[in-house]
């Protein structure tokens, strides 16, 4: 009998709204027994992973659980490392958009986190060998980075430090990686070090033979890690389960230009571009970076968070029924590359409050993207997780949710009638299906990608994405 891996990815975020706070306990158990890494701001220092034979290690002090303080890096080296990181990040973005294209066929609201999925699959990539690793490399677009693992390890460390540094830049982004492993499973020491020191995660021993207790224990830890945002994501495990890989991303951002609650008004949204439903529409007249995208038959606007380094990019097709076609034609690398070319214009912005949640079983979609051996008994090759070669991935679960509102800070009230009917300013009016991305502009990382097809007239918010089993 082959042992199983359950692969879980969780993402949650708040935009402009009060939340329960960042995931302060995300690595609580890890930090209780280990000194935390000496993370300084992003531009102070960068990691220096090194490769030893068939194993992966990060330069550390005499104690393998502590990070060595890194000296300051010259600015020209920072620029070079940022450029290297952007290449890997753009590969992850491309993978995420390809996966999102598979999900849009479900004809529902969609929310996912490319950075979360690519990091989680990256953990499996470094555990894999042979054709399993080759398939992951092709799907994640790692083939262009050569044989040296440092070409990937350094940018991954960079991304984790960028997330930590974001706290000082007006938003909170926390990444957490956790592996639940069967007690006494023969995980290589070097792989444990890789998870701790490059991915900032840890390995938690568990007894999967006690299935009910194992599920309860894992869900309790995950609920605690996510401050209750993700509740009981694991429904069941098999006694043959040996590993559950978990990635969690928390995002919290406040608008640089908050909407006034008193300026929000009752309006309509065209579900699927056809059916009218009542919604609460947020409004603001201000200067924003906007751009016409004729190649997509769409228009775009950047909504900055407090730092300007992180933005929500909204893409609105001109055809109310054009959102899926727009996504199919979207070149995400070009979209991010063109962000500096947007024009600063005064606009009347109308955008509904919205929240969306999606829970997806991605085994079928990942298989269709070329990641096949990972799920096939007798073919999955994950020697870093188990030298006996008895592991196979059972499923990949991805859960994400986000809420967008005014942030609660009120500005000067503006007459609604004048807003709608008599404005002399160009209008960006989000009243039909649209796409949004939450982007870290410095690195190009896409924290969230979402498609809103319909709103719920009862809740004045979108219906949540259901559990997707594949097509």
TrEMBL record:
Residues 1-19 form the signal peptide. GO terms for molecular function: serine-type endopeptidase inhibitor activity. One of its GO terms (cellular component) is extracellular space. InterPro entries: Serpin_dom (IPR023796), Serpin_fam (IPR000215), Serpin_sf (IPR036186), Serpin_sf_1 (IPR042178), Serpin_sf_2 (IPR042185). Residues 97-455 form the Serpin domain. It comes from the Eukaryota. CDD domains: serpin (cd00172). SMART domains: SERPIN (SM00093). Keywords: Glycoprotein, Protease inhibitor, Serine protease inhibitor, Signal. Pfam families: Serpin (PF00079). The keyword Ribosomal protein does not apply. Belongs to the serpin family. This is Leukocyte elastase inhibitor. The gene is LOC100903528.
